[in-house]
């Protein structure tokens, strides 16, 4: 028995950055359609795709896409898949005043699994002020007034020791809200 069609977003980590690990969005759309997904759309060139699926769950869909991407492009791509309800809940749970900030000042790092606060307990938040972070449901919210590219806290939070065993991929607030909009049925 097939499940009802659901809307998802695929978040690809580390593609189309600095001219390497190129995944053209037209080929990504074709790849997802070839896996049997419908209503495939992409956003920007940084690996955001929205699609419908009537089989699988977030983890199995991500694994299927990761394998297909490796076959197609010849390199490993870490993929997170999240359903529309989760994306909306993350946006609605933002602990920072998103409506008063520029999109480049607020970021969400999506994690492949729940993250306990003690993982980040050694980060001295006061040393990075005015930058701040808060944990959410498989997500980390980062307020970086000068943007992620200049964020010392963002750099610290993504150190391998803190993200060990996780897939972690970040999106700015403009992309977070666009993905919610794109997955809103």
Which CATH architecture of the largest domain is right? 2-Layer Sandwich
Biggest sheet, spatial arrangement of strands: 2-3-1-4
Q: Helix- and strand-based class?
A: alpha+beta
Beta content comes to 15-25%
What profile does the largest beta sheet have? 4 strands, antiparallel
Number of domains: 2
- Determine the mean pLDDT: 93
List segments where confidence is low: pLDDT < 50 over at least 5 consecutive residues: none
Distance between the termini: 23 Å
Bulk shape: globular
- Provide the succession of SSEs: EHEEHEHEEEHHEH
Report the CATH C-level class of the largest domain.
Answer: Alpha Beta
Supply Rg: 16 Å
Helix content: 25-40%
Q: Determine the number of helices (DSSP H or I, runs of at least 4 residues).
A: 6
Number of strands: 8
At CATH level 3, the topology of the largest domain is: Alpha-Beta Plaits
Gist of the model:
The protein is α+β, with helices and mostly antiparallel strands.
Structure, explained:
With 185 residues, the protein is of the alpha+beta class. The chain has 2 domains: 6-83, SP0830-like domains (Alpha-Beta Plaits), CATH 3.30.70.1280; 87-183, Alpha-Beta Plaits. Helices cover 30% and strands 24% of the residues. The protein is built from 6 helices and 8 strands, in the order βαββαβαβββααβα. It has helices at residues 25-34, 58-73, 84-92, 152-157, 160-163, 173-183, and strands at 6-12, 38-43, 48-53, 79-83, 106-111, 132-136, 139-143, 168-172. Strands 2-3-1-4 form a 4-stranded antiparallel beta sheet, with helices on both faces. A hairpin with a 2-residue loop joins β6 and β7. The protein is globular and about 50 Å long.
